[in-house]
Design goal:
By secondary structure, this protein is an all-alpha fold. The chain contains 9 helices and no strands.
Length: about 200
């Protein structure tokens, strides 16, 4: 029940309030938000990502409350981050062996090492690859027409531009927690991964 309630009342916490990963935020309402949210959530379950790995990716900066691996308020990052937070609240499956609450066997050793790395760019590169694969799988499951598939690619590219523009905006601020936190970020990993997943060649 707690898990279902969390799905229904997800809400965004504000940087500076030192939120935990279990703080609710709003349910994604736009098609693109829902696609990213469910694509990432399905990927987490399908791969059986460990709680340790998911917690590492979804962690917040203890001082500012800003997500360590996501661009705050980015239209692609926030539904992806919410998917991680929901996954971290997952209950055990009923009727299964004790402690069974996901499907896959976990991330491969190389990816897990990069996800848990103390180097941010290494973590972001791993997150990029995970999100790209999960979103590609989600799009592939939607039985889209060529036109719809092209439209999705364009939409994800537009949202990528918005996310990276937001990152640049934070970096241009003269003071405050955003400029301090994002000053040396090179890119938005979730934006890049999502947009790369949207790229495809029409076979015609």
């Amino acid at each position: 029940m707690r898990f279902l309630i969390l799905l229904c009342v997800l809400g965004c916490s504000l940087p500076g309030e030192k939120p935990s990963v279990s703080v609710p935020s709003k349910v994604p309402s736009q098609p693109s938000e829902q696609m990213i949210f469910f694509g990432v959530l399905e990927g987490l379950y399908r791969d059986g990502v460990s709680t340790e790995a998911a917690s590492s990716i979804a962690a917040l900066d203890p001082g500012s409350g800003i997500p360590l691996n996501f661009v705050y308020n980015c239209p692609l990052c926030m539904p992806a981050l919410d998917a991680f937070r929901v996954y971290l609240e997952r209950p055990d499956f009923l009727g299964k062996k004790a402690g069974s609450n996901t499907f896959g066997g976990g991330l491969d050793a190389s990816t897990l090492e990069r996800v848990l790395s103390g180097d941010r760019e290494t973590r972001l590169e791993a997150l990029h690859g995970l999100v790209q694969g999960w979103v590609e799988t989600r799009l592939g499951s939607l039985d889209l027409t060529r036109g719809e598939r092209t439209a999705w690619g364009r939409q994800l590219a537009r949202l990528r531009e918005k996310g990276n523009a937001l990152l640049a905006e934070y970096q241009e601020q003269e003071e405050g927690p955003y400029v301090e936190f994002y000053s040396d970020w090179k890119r938005c990993a979730v934006c890049d991964g999502s947009s790369d997943a949207g790229e495809w060649e029409d076979p015609q």
